[in-house]
Specification:
The protein folds into 3 domains: 8-75, OB fold (Dihydrolipoamide Acetyltransferase, E2P) (Beta Barrel), CATH 2.40.50.140; 78-153; 155-229, Alpha-Beta Plaits, CATH 3.30.70. A hairpin with a 2-residue loop joins β1 and β2 (20-25). The protein is flat, with a radius of gyration of 20 Å. The protein has a 5-stranded antiparallel sheet, with helices on one face. Strands 7-8-6-9 form a 4-stranded antiparallel sheet. The protein starts with 7 loop residues before the first strand and ends with a strand. The chain has helices spanning 77-99, 104-112, 117-126, 137-153, 170-177, 202-222, and strands spanning 8-17, 20-25, 29-34, 55-64, 67-71, 155-164, 184-189, 192-199, 226-229. α1 (77-99) packs across α2 (104-112). The model has no long low-confidence stretch (mean pLDDT 88). The chain is built from 6 helices and 9 strands; from the N terminus they run βββββααααβαββαβ. By secondary structure, it is of the alpha+beta class.
């Protein structure tokens, strides 16, 4: 993967040492983030923002022959959500390709030569024949069938909620409250979030999301954070 300055990239935190965070950038590159590029002002506890093993979104500031400098704080909520969404869609593509016995890395690299991965994933939902540019007709049809079955099976529901904390460790508390794997949570700005869940039907999806929101409310009370579901107009 070729990278350049100002690119938005996904990184995995490898270690925190001194006043720098060392990361592995998608595509096998390595770089670092100085604390001043993690957050503005004094950082009381760096682990309120990043921790070893965590996947984060960064901006490339400078590329030197032997080093890459990045920023975590210069990423907007929209840029972060777009990068994470692209990552999620690329993972879904890999899963589809593995299911038909293809090598995902090779095919996805070929796709990236002509398309943004996120855009490609959305396009194949309505035009699965696009896969015939990269696969045999037989395998493209298999993926088409898998996609249509997935769309038919899954139903999605979404709700917005407000969550905020005035605690000294507010950022860390919010992250711990929202630490769920089976729900898609996005930050919308002004302490407002959205949570979406899927199921075989709307009843199942709504039930799953309701249980998660109840758990978020419970954890918020334990952390003395404010939680409120936004009423739909």
């Amino acid at each position: 993967m070729k990278i350049k300055e100002d690119d938005i990239v996904l990184c995995t935190v490898k270690k925190i040492e001194g006043t720098a965070v060392f990361v592995e950038i998608e595509g096998g590159h390595y770089g670092s983030i100085v604390f001043s590029e993690i957050a503005a002002g004094r950082i009381r506890n760096i682990r309120d923002y990043v921790s070893v093993g965590r996947l984060i979104v960064c901006k490339i500031l400078k590329i030197a022959p032997d080093h890459i400098e990045l920023s975590f704080r210069r990423i907007t909520a929209k840029e972060r959500d777009m990068a994470l969404d692209r990552h999620k869609k690329e993972a879904a593509l890999k899963s589809l390709l593995k299911a038909i016995g293809e090598e995902p890395a090779r095919i996805i690299d070929n796709i990236k030569d002509s398309y943004d991965v996120g855009d490609f994933f959305e396009e194949i939902k309505s035009n699965p024949k696009l896969f015939e540019k990269f696969l045999s007709k037989e395998k493209a049809e298999k993926i088409s069938k898998m996609l249509s079955e997935k769309v038919e099976k899954e139903k999605f529901v979404k709700k917005k909620f407000v969550l905020k904390s005035l605690s000294e460790h507010g950022v860390r508390d919010i992250k711990e409250i929202l630490n769920f794997e089976n729900v898609d949570i996005k930050y919308l700005g002004s302490s407002t979030f959205s949570a979406s869940s899927s199921g075989r039907d709307f009843k199942e999806a709504e039930g799953s999301l309701a249980r998660i929101l109840e758990e978020i409310e419970k954890k918020a009370k334990e952390k003395r954070a404010f939680f409120e579901i936004v009423k739909e107009k």
